[in-house]
Amino acid sequence: MTAFDRRLFLRTGLLAAGGALLSACAKNENITFVQPAGDQVRAAEAARTPGTIRDFTLTARPGHADLGGPTVSTWLYGDRLPGEPIRVKAGEVVRAKLVNTLPQPTTVHWHGLALRNDADGVPGVTQPVIAAGSERVYEFTAPHPGTYWFHPHHGPQLDRGLYAPLIVEDPAEPLTYDHEWIVVLDDWMDGVSGTPDDVLAELTSMAGMMDGGGGHGGHAMPTPRPSASAKWPYMMMNAESDLLGGDAGDVYYPHFLLNGRVPASPETFTAKPGDKVRIRLINAGGDTAFRVALGDHTMTVTHTDGFPVEPVETDALLLGMGERYDVLVTLKDGAFPLVALAEGKRALARAVVRTAPSARAPGAEDRPAQLEGRLVGYDRLVPAAAVRLAAKNPDRTITLRLMGSMAKYDWTINRKKYDPKVIEPIRSGERVRLSFVNQSLMWHPMHLHGHTFALAGTGVRKDTAIVLPGMTVNVDFDADNPGIWMIHCHNIYHAEAGMMSLLGYRV
Hints:
Shape: globular
Helix content: under 10%
């Protein structure tokens, strides 16, 4: 695949940045918004016809995680990394008690679900924080089948070990397969080189202090390979990717994990030749996009961000932080590497797929040719007919200018850092267009809470979409889930530096 092909692969719904811009800064003095526990939210939940209640307990706690050799001190849900998956059927009610034994407050965000607003887990917006030593019960209907996940929404806690899959099964599942495999990808530094709080403190203290120079937002890059520096030990240098429009990431990570394991000690998935496997891919990283391929196999994409698409074959997929893809693969005879390349960072996470006990195991540095093969971008995805939004012109357009630089670490939306008092008003029943205009030199995976939007052009349904530097992504959603909802970059450090905003339904 050429560099030109790489830069085009995300182009559906993308326009050159510029033109007239609408302000997303609401003047809220005389506006009354639906409250997270208000009557409209309760009515919307009742309309989901909640089914059987399924009870779960999550204990957020300090602990140790064996990464397949290295053992690290971190924070976990329970005693495993990733946390134990929650699995329910569409229409069932998740009742999850979070017990916080961490030394900090926390919350839980249920990423991708169109759930009731008071269960969304945004501190100071949909709930108070869960203080250290206390607990909270989240109760909500899981309305749509698909691959989702959950994580904290308090500070940079996401970049520790606090994450786990949430699988909502379809009672009328149309796919047939022999096995299912959940694959969670992550970038890792906690307990090795420092903590996410250390990283955030370094990044946000750099404003005006970095040396001049080209490349990474205006600082000198003394080495030809992605690395940290003596002066800035947590900052990534020289991470470049054509796929991501140039700069690939901010943070230096010593490890990249697949299902909690380093490449030298990979997980092995065992099956028989000819078996069909559904792989649910989740990018739980803080600052890394992953390009994923299975050696000697093609993958058939069936879902993105939980919602079905018309099946399409590919050699590789690119997942920004927060994105998910479901694929079907018919396995060959042998042993094959499942590789997740940390895009632009020249390192990888990996697992082994084995259907023949005596086959030679792939090497730790094996990079299958499929990584450089066909790459399905948004332009090749077509939504399944059942989930396509009805044709309708937007009733309202909200333009969100993504701004900032690495040099100042001043990531903003419309030049404003996150302020929970600033809420963009919308009304129930509207078709709302969000226009993400990236005026920065970094890529941003933009995530909308409580809704699944449709990419302009193809109509493919997603809740998280990559916005390349200098480009615009237009997405539409129907305002059918009342409350106050966050929009933010899913690079956890960009978000915590200020690239977050709010939408609110008017009463």
